[in-house]
Write a structure and sequence with these properties.
11% strand; 60% helix; alpha/beta; 5-stranded parallel β-sheet
């Protein structure tokens, strides 16, 4: 049985020992992972141990139970807090309720009552976890969200270059029947809205948000008898998009005829102009983003040929003998591989980019433009991440001569992989150096401000422009200490210096090293050095 973790907080050690000894924690579903004698001490232990439940007294020195509960709510909202108090004070109970305290118990703590409360808390924790893990509920939520998830996937598919394997697995998961076609074509559909209210003759025109739904209905009815397809609403350039899967008995020409009929039907029934841009056909779904882009470009010719018709990109831009282009998808994949790796991805992406140059049958000048596009991206990344240009490009600063040297197609792939790999290593090294520099700045800020009793992670993060969660993780990784432990060490070391070198009173030293309360300073000092500040000075 998995046990939940709990921390006990009470300024009386005998009370803590008594509670720990009397309760059968395991049968109640818990294990005690720590105890603390005040709220300040408890916060340090909570940061390290991250318990499920904190059981705390309400009256304690340095930081009382309500203040501790408030700080826990701010930093760890899902943590359960149980307060026990020797005071039957309505005001305390009111504050506890406002802080969403799980239970409020009066001292002396009754073993049976506390055990019963612990079992109730365990039951609540079990239910919360079960609710989050409930497969049938998750499946039902997934089913309800599936249309939205499909839309998101389709939009990703046409705007980013996804792998064939990923596309195939998602199409199967979402039960989308467009796999295994001879080729695929994108149709981008634009539905015009009239600003001239005198032309709104149908009641449907008064509720324009319903018009796209009507158009989608016409599209589905017309296409279902011709080919397999998927229809979805776009988040960008076109209002809706069709992915048409053309098999052996379908042709692009036939698809254009059906889409043309849709334009006519929308005009006749709905009295709205519907323009459809038709892109280049592709033989793999991983290339579908290219078909989408050309379909959007076809829509752009609406200003030239008019609206309310189909516009086929090949009619506007006749296909030449070949095209070699370092496009947005290639550039995005290359940048991602260089920034994040691993080596296998860098090798795969650079092989694909160099493979285009090797397989394309184009003019020499187009090869130069392609290589220059790749090189331009590399130079931009070198500038963005402040890398050493000579180290990355092997000391060759004449860009045109680099391009000439790379015209030997078999050498281009090898050069590109080596260059991308060097950039990846340099960026990773720069990232590590930057992290170390930031932590060094944080240390310096702590050193400059440790006298401030209000110094906190939030203050440091505002200074560094970082999130507290990321800072805490990086700080502990770099220093081996949690922030609070590091700050405490700095303050106590400074206190030792002042005890050794000055005759200042203890309360003055406490104030100088960032402690508002002399008693709490003495408590922390004794906890670390085994003696009070006064005895430490006496033994000097």
């Amino acid at each position: 049985m998995n046990l939940y973790s709990i921390i006990l907080v009470d300024d009386e050690e005998e009370v803590r020992k008594s509670i720990i000894k009397q309760i059968d924690w395991e049968s109640a579903g818990f294990k005690v992972v720590g105890d603390a004698e005040n709220g300040e001490d408890a916060l340090e232990k909570i940061e390290v141990l991250e318990p499920d439940v904190v059981l705390t007294d309400i009256r304690m020195p340095y930081m009382d139970g309500l203040t501790l509960a408030e700080k826990i709510r701010q930093r760890y909202p899902s943590m359960k807090v149980v307060i026990f108090s020797g005071y039957d004070d309505f005001e305390y109970a009111q504050k506890a309720i406002k802080l969403n305290v799980t239970e409020y118990i009066l001292k002396p703590v009754n073993v049976e009552e506390l055990t019963s409360i612990l079992k109730r808390i365990k039951s609540n924790l079990d239910e919360e976890i079960e609710e989050k893990r409930n497969v049938s509920r998750l499946r039902e939520n997934y089913r309800k969200s599936l249309p939205i998830i499909r839309e998101q996937f389709f939009n990703d598919m046409v705007h980013r270059r996804l792998s064939d394997d990923l596309i195939e697995s998602k199409l199967k998961e979402y039960d989308i029947p467009i796999m295994g076609a001879r080729k695929w074509v994108i149709a981008a559909i634009d539905v015009e809205k009239s600003d001239d209210r005198s032309k709104k003759t149908l009641s449907l025109h008064e509720e324009e948000e319903l018009i796209p739904i009507s158009v989608m209905q016409i599209v589905r009815e017309k296409l279902k008898s011709y080919c397999r397809f998927s229809l979805f609403q776009s988040t960008a350039e076109a209002e809706m998009v069709v992915i048409a899967a053309l098999d052996d008995d379908n042709t692009t020409t036939g698809l254009i005829d059906v889409l043309g009929d849709i334009c006519k039907e929308a005009k006749r029934i709905l009295e709205v102009p519907v323009t459809i841009g038709i892109g280049h056909s592709v033989t793999g779904l991983s290339k579908i983003a290219g078909s989408y882009q050309s379909a959007v470009e076809a829509l752009g010719y609406k200003a030239v040929v008019g609206s309310g018709i189909t516009i086929y990109i090949n009619d506007m831009e006749p296909v030449g003998s070949g095209k070699l282009e370092f496009d947005n998808a290639d550039e995005s994949d290359f940048i991602s591989a260089v920034k994040f790796g691993p080596d296998e991805k860098i090798e795969a992406v650079t092989a694909r980019i160099s493979g285009k140059l090797e397989s394309a049958k184009v003019h020499y000048r187009q090869q130069q433009v392609y290589v220059f596009g790749v090189l331009n991206t590399i130079i931009q990344m070198i500038q963005q991440y402040d890398l050493n240009l000579e180290e990355i490009l092997g000391g060759e600063l004449e860009y045109l001569s680099v391009i000439d040297k790379l015209q030997k197609r078999e050498e281009f792939g090898e050069w590109l992989f080596k260059t991308a790999h060097k950039m990846n290593q340099a960026i990773n090294q720069e990232r590590d150096i930057t992290t170390r520099q930031v932590i060094q700045q944080a240390k310096q800020y702590i050193m400059d401000n440790y006298q401030n009793p209000d110094l906190s992670v939030e203050m440091i993060c505002r200074h560094l422009h970082m999130s507290p969660a990321y800072f805490s993780t990086m700080f502990k990784k770099e220093t081996g200490q949690a922030y609070i432990a590091y700050l405490t060490e700095i303050r106590l070391n400074k206190a030792v210096e002042l005890l050794n070198k000055t005759d200042d009173k203890t309360y003055v030293i406490a104030s100088k090293v960032g402690y508002q309360e002399q008693n709490y300073f003495s408590y922390v000092f004794k906890k670390k050095f085994g003696v009070s500040p006064t005895k430490f000075r006496g033994a000097r």
